[in-house]
Amino acid sequence: MTAATAPAPAAETPDGGAVIDVRGLRMRYGTMDVITGVNFSVHRGEVIALLGPNGAGKTTTIEILEGFRIRSAGDVRVLGTEPATGDERWRARLGIVLQSWRDHARWRVRDLLDHLGRYYAPFATPGRPRPIETDKLIAMVGLTEHANRRISTLSGGQRRRLDVAIGIVGRPDVLFLDEPTAGLDPHARHDFHDLLHRLSDFDDTTILFTTHDLNEAEKMADRILILADGRIVADGSAEQLARRVSGQAEVRWSQDGEFLVHSTDDATAFVRELFAEHGDEIGDLEVRRTSLEDTYMALVHRLETGQSGGDVVPFKRTA
Ligand SMILES: Nc1ncnc2c1ncn2[C@@H]1O[C@H](COP(=O)(O)OP(=O)(O)OP(=O)(O)O)[C@@H](O)[C@H]1O
Question: I need a labelling partner for 149 at 20 to 30 A (CA). Which of 50, 131, 272, 287 fits?
Answer without folding.
Answer: 131
